[in-house]
Specification:
Nucleotidyltransferase, domain 5, binds zinc ion, 292 residues, 5-stranded mixed sheet
């Protein structure tokens, strides 16, 4: 039996094929087609057709809220509002499809053996990518809210009256601490390059990274105070080169917020599956949700 795991990001779409033990046997990466859900479904169909084995079920993570029981999806980053993408894809593939929020999927992958928070009960998970996604594990269970739309951690306000966000609010965490904003602080250098150059000692990039790290720290401190988690996990595009980011965030926390940076250092960590967590987790959730 094979399971396809698809992570539809705001920029890239990741496709993975997993065996029944959730070991990854094949991956593909392509640019996300945004806006047009039919085109996105066809894009996934082409990836399924090109895979070395036909999947039996498909799990999809999307950067937005997936409401239940309606199946409607809202995603500012994909420019989807109230679309039932699970149904669209089911019809295109003629296969069982499980659709979920990408950060919920990533958290599911990280709680499996080998993940960054396996065995823990209270976890805050953040995907720092094109936008910011979030997921919460509370007392060992994912916290999903009454309609499955909970934990949109990119959309609590860190700058009252600040920049207008795609969600309609002003001053959301995402407008100051997504990977895209790191490019803004660095004068247009891509997030991954900023991290690489900062790690090599480039002082201008370190300066930009510190502006960014402070914004991430503001959000993390609030989340820490609310949830008092055992782990705060950073995933998404930025986690690929994020060791230096973790260090710069911890440096910002101590003087600015009078929180115990040592306690924070113990809980703050990078996703073990790094940027593949969403893809692996979408497969894991599909297996859980569709194979019962
Ligand atoms: Zn927002």
């Amino acid at each position: 039996m094979y399971i396809a795991g698809v992570d539809i990001g705001g920029t890239n779409l990741k496709f993975g094929l997993f065996d029944e033990n959730l070991a990854c046997v094949y991956t593909q990466l392509t640019r996300t087609v945004r806006g047009d859900t039919q085109a996105c479904a066809r894009q996934i169909k082409a990836l399924v057709d090109g895979a070395p084995h036909a999947p039996d079920i498909v799990g999809v993570g999307v950067p937005g809220a997936v409401f239940r029981p309606s199946g409607k999806v809202n995603s500012g980053n994909l420019r989807w509002a109230g679309v039932n993408f699970g149904e669209t894809l089911r019809q295109e593939l003629n296969l069982p499809v499980w659709i979920d929020n990408d950060a919920q999927a990533a958290l599911a992958a990280e709680t499996l053996p080998g993940g960054s928070c396996c065995g823990l009960k209270d976890v805050v998970y953040l995907t720092l990518g094109t936008g910011i996604g979030g997921a919460l594990l509370i007392d060992g269970k994912p916290w999903r809210g009454h309609d499955n739309g909970a934990a949109e951690l990119g959309h609590f306000i860190t700058h009252a009256g600040g920049l207008k966000c795609a969600c309609g609010l002003r001053g959301c965490f995402e407008m100051y601490a997504s990977a895209g904003t790191l490019a803004r602080y660095s004068g247009g250098v891509r997030a991954r390059l900023v991290l690489d150059r900062a790690a090599q000692g480039d002082s201008k990039m370190i300066e930009a990274l510190d502006v960014y790290a402070k914004e991430v720290a503001i959000g993390l401190c609030s989340l820490y105070m609310i949830f008092r988690p055992e782990a705060m996990v950073l995933g998404g595009g930025i986690s690929a080169g994020g060791e230096i980011l973790v260090q710069r965030i911890l440096k910002q926390i101590e003087p600015a917020y009078n929180l115990d940076a040592k306690a924070m250092a113990q809980v703050l960590r990078l996703a073990k599956h790094r940027n593949d967590a969403g893809m692996a987790g979408a497969a894991a959730l599909a297996k859980q949700g569709l194979m019962r």
